[in-house]
């Protein structure tokens, strides 16, 4: 626990039960918790972890796409991709700000990413091998992120919900740009269509795994749902995503290489095949194709940016002294 966390949670024991009751009432009536409200230590800890890991994912997620800015096939495509990658940086910043309101300073959260004690979404440990992969990332990865994140706009912790509203608006632009890249390719030469199909084949499984392990294997989900942080289970969100992307793939003239994928009249949903969870676990453990490269790049970028942080701190200090001398 950081010193600031201690201050925020320092409530005499007699009052604590009352505070807990008030918190439970707010959750029961689906109200929002603000940073100045009392909250249980476990709620604060869960949110700090979730929001900061979400921020880390946005920051690391810039890498596979930034790698394609100079190779995008036209000036227009470069400009669109650059705007998208900048959006992701912005998402990281909103989310670090939201996480900081829970009491842990940003430096500490960033350090957890750099020393490997914090995780980020495993999807970003896959490479973007071709231009079509940029389309597949936008359509499937940002698409899965939207399915996950739209319900988070109603998360009980208010700063998180507010950050998600803006993020989701930008994510829907990201998804459309990805779909449009694939549409152009799938309506181009046979080689371009093939490239689009191969990109989808690569990203289908990992994108479905973005919703996390199956419900039976996701012990923390229940508590997050009880706290109104999470509104739907991993499997519910995954199903919603599959139901959304199958007709979109048909509109592209492409398909998913899943022999079990078919409409189930009785359930009113698409059935789909078992995912490779051993691969998912291996990538989380650091054995994905790009884990080492992503972290090396992030550490290098952090070291390269040291002078900017120093200059910003010196500037803030100078202005702070000027302000206090005016007051005196
Ligand atoms: Fe994002
Ligand atoms: Fe995005």
TrEMBL record:
GO terms for biological process: phenylacetate catabolic process. It comes from the Bacteria. InterPro entries: Aromatic_CoA_ox/epox (IPR052703), Ferritin-like (IPR012347), Ferritin-like_SF (IPR009078), PaaA (IPR011881), PaaA_PaaC (IPR007814). Keywords: Oxidoreductase. GO terms for cellular component: cytosol. Its EC number is 1.14.13.149. Pfam families: PaaA_PaaC (PF05138). It is an enzyme of class 1 (oxidoreductase). GO terms for molecular function: phenylacetyl-CoA 1,2-epoxidase activity. NCBIfam families: PA_CoA_Oxy1. This is 1,2-phenylacetyl-CoA epoxidase subunit A. It comes from Corynebacterium minutissimum.
